[in-house]
Amino acid sequence: MSTLKEVLRKKIDEHRPRTVKLIKECGDVSLGEVTIAQAIGGARGVKCLVTDISYLDPMEGIRFRGKTIPETFAALPKVPGSDYPYVEGFWYMLMTGDVPTMEQTLEVVEDWKKRSQVPEYVIDVLRAMPRDSHPMTMFSTAVLAMQRDSIFAKNYREGKFNKMTCWEDMYEDATNLMAKLAPIAAYIYRMKYKGDTHIDADPNLDMGGNFARMMGVDAPYDDVARMYFILHSDHESGNVSAHTTHLVASALSDAYYSYSAGLNGLAGPLHGLANQEVLGWTQDFMAKLGGEVPTKEQLEKALWDTLNSGQVIPGYGHAVLRKTDPRYSSQREFCLKTEGLKDYPLFKLVSMIYEVAPGVLQEHGKAKNPWPNVDAQSGVIQWYYGVTEYDFYTVLFGVGRAIGCLANITWDRALGYAIERPKSVTTAMLEDAAGIK
Ligand SMILES: CC(=O)SCCNC(=O)CCNC(=O)[C@H](O)C(C)(C)COP(=O)(O)OP(=O)(O)OC[C@H]1O[C@@H](n2cnc3c(N)ncnc32)[C@H](O)[C@@H]1OP(=O)(O)O
Ligand SMILES: O=C([O-])CC(=O)C(=O)O
Fold first, then answer.
1. CA-based, 20 to 30 A from 159: which of 31, 224, 242, 310?
2. Transmembrane ranges (predicted)?
3. Is the CATH number 3.40.50.2000 carried by domain 274-384?
């Protein structure tokens, strides 16, 4: 039994009475009313989900297990020779709420390596798909294909389901899936864009290091990968990918069914696909200028053209945040401290958009948050290191997002959260409630 699983078991045992007490003794306490605008408008601000993995403050941004992004990076054990932590150590932290020691981290590194072999049938499935399928379609399909290996589903099928212990099967599936996602992503990348040539993992490397190697991108792309996966991991549980994963898992669907569904939500342009859209928008804009460095006036006009044609400015705005996303700031700082990148024309353009777009959006007067989100800054770093195939960017997001989604559904089963089933009403009922009928 790994240390992580043992620590998790202890944490779950300690936590369960809190949830039971809240339901039994305080179940009638109100968390607020629901308005018509919320019912029609995507349940914005309705407090009806519970997670302890991360929390999003509208002004401060995300905290992972109570830690801000800089605190998270500072606290976790670092890969030797790198400023960035092991993704495996971060997984330990999201799962348990504890910062692991180096020894505990390396135990997860070894555990993931043992589980990382991608089944041959997954490769067959990917190869059978049309090569021009979107990489997110391939990624989600690969995850779904592995459902046949679910331990959770097998034990359920064999009548071994037990509400108190089923988290263990979810944990095993979650860990098996987590260990395979980066190799699957790298396989898709090289099959689609690098002449179908592939690079084997190096048993001496951690997850981030191996991902860079299998992608065929030199250092410091290993650090970029570690940073990227950690930054994209979780954003409390109401966002589309996390909520979808949670919803599907609430029917006791296993981790494969659930996360494949979560990825399908992440693939939407208002969610994870926005990072692809940002690069598409920027490249189209540059092409129209014939590669010339744009002026602020030209940029402002392009932003207005986008808004006036009824499109959104990708990478800007947010459902919860009301300030610049600290994940944006963290990646911006990475660019500013990286020689070459800080003067890179695409980074300069992204910085110019940061100067101009919030004012344009404020004048436009619709978006509640005119500031950039994570997606406005992530593509430029990938581009700089040679990963210019921007329809692949959401797959990178999907590898990172799995850390949060899978930790969440493991805890969902540990705490016995119910099947999700909010109540719907008809339009006539809303009119009645509003007294306009
Ligand atoms: C990882 C992530 O998922 S981060 C988000 C990634 N998505 C993007 O960057 C896409 C661009 N942004 C958006 O579309 C939105 O800001 C969202 C989807 C992120 C949030 O949506 P909402 O919570 O509905 O935003 P908000 O309440 O501010 O919307 C009010 C109005 O402003 C508009 N608006 C919001 N952001 C933008 C934007 N970036 N450009 C233009 N219009 C915008 C909305 O479309 C809406 O218009 P409507 O009244 O005509 O329907
Ligand atoms: O929180 C949200 O709604 C969207 C987002 O930024 C994320 O999921 O990372």
1. 242
2. none
3. no
